[in-house]
Amino acid sequence: MTDPEIHKGLAGVVVDTTNISSVNPQTNSLLYRGYPVQELAAKCSFEEVAWLLWHGELPTPEELADFQKLERGLRRMDDRTRRALDDIPASAHPMDALRTAVSQLGGMDPTLEQPNGILDPELNLSRAVYLFAQLPTIVAYIQRRRRGLEIVESRDDLDYAENFLWLTFGEVPDDVVVDAFRVSLVLYAEHSFNASTFTARVIASTLSDVYSAVTGAIGALKGPLHGGANEAVMHAFDEIGSADRAEAWLDDALAEKRKIMGFGHRVYKNGDSRVPTMRASLETLAEHYDRQDLLDLYNALEQAMGDRKNIKPNLDYPSGPAYNLMGFDTETFTPLFAAARVTGWTAHIFEQYAANSLIRPLSLYTGPAERHLS
Ligand SMILES: CC(=O)SCCNC(=O)CCNC(=O)[C@H](O)C(C)(C)COP(=O)(O)OP(=O)(O)OC[C@H]1O[C@@H](n2cnc3c(N)ncnc32)[C@H](O)[C@@H]1OP(=O)(O)O
Ligand SMILES: O=C([O-])CC(=O)C(=O)O
Prior knowledge:
Keywords: Transferase, Tricarboxylic acid cycle
Active site: 265, 316
CATH class of the largest domain: Mainly Alpha
Helix content: 55-70%
Number of strands: 3
Pfam families: Citrate_synt (PF00285)
Number of helices: 16
Distance between the termini: 30 Å
Radius of gyration: 21 Å
Strand content: under 5%
Structural class: mainly alpha
Number of domains: 2
Strand order of the largest sheet: 1-2-3
Pathway: Carbohydrate metabolism; tricarboxylic acid cycle; isocitrate from oxaloacetate: step 1/2
Bound molecules: acetyl coenzyme *A, oxaloacetate ion
GO molecular function, one term: citrate synthase activity
CATH superfamily of the largest domain: Citrate Synthase, domain 1
């Protein structure tokens, strides 16, 4: 009998269909429900993109107004969530705190216990909207607590992106900063069967609940080969210090066989479709904050990596320094990714429930042959 073909890391394996987004490395395109992500980033609020991912169509003006009203009414953090967060050491990684908070929200949702409470599509949409509204409050609070600052309450006159920045910094920055932040959220929202989304789908496929699936997805996103890379990019920039040191730093890192964070991608081999849009936002921010030095370092490392390995940046490469310029702590970068991606995760969880098959692949056993206790 010949051994089955092994697909390590499921590389190249098509495991299911999806109508949420398409990643096409040949044309270097990314479509959300058919719309190019660049067009959505140029023209849509993050609320509109969230709606599109969940419902398949952009909202009408009335639907958008109702959704915005609903979202604004769900932003306040429950005292029990606050207590759960306060119980975690402030030194813990924000992704650990966020993962705990989402899990705790699941424990506080009594509707999960209703008949069909886990799978009811209407309840699940409400849960997705609730998580969408809550994550900025939670992520902002985690950063403020780490800085020894008091919580800031949401403002109903602000949209999602503005309010997220307000909650974090206690002020709404200039429009160019808000816009760069909104663009990052749109670009991070969805990316087909990436590791965290697949994790969410695996969990949903057991007919477990939305909160469990999102909690698991947060765990998967934390790793530096996935979402954790946006933080790792900034750590690398801190290590390098300035553009003139990029080449030497890279040579040392490659000699030590280190992975260069923010470069490479499982699907895109000729560059990530989202990078030009995020890079343009980074450029605007660098100009706004008068930080050409950061852009120089960005360009120098990209150039050196291209020369030596011909490997291109992924979205985490421009997002890391962009979030740094906006004033976020490095440890908050991956939670920002999670707050954006909760839209894509939940859309995929709904899709999984709607046409479910338990996800359970096979493995080729390579351990000891059958043996017996004497
Ligand atoms: C938004 C996102 O989540 S995007 C991904 C974010 N993650 C990162 O930025 C982490 C750094 N990048 C990586 O580790 C990888 O590129 C991954 C995990 C993203 C993709 O990995 P894979 O598809 O498995 O690529 P694979 O590992 O086969 O790479 C092919 C070759 O390029 C090398 N390579 C790929 N990425 C990098 C990198 N960032 N630094 C150095 N070498 C790299 C590999 O070592 C491998 O070389 P080899 O053939 O000599 O062994
Ligand atoms: O698609 C992937 O493997 C990783 C990625 O870029 C994302 O999740 O945005």
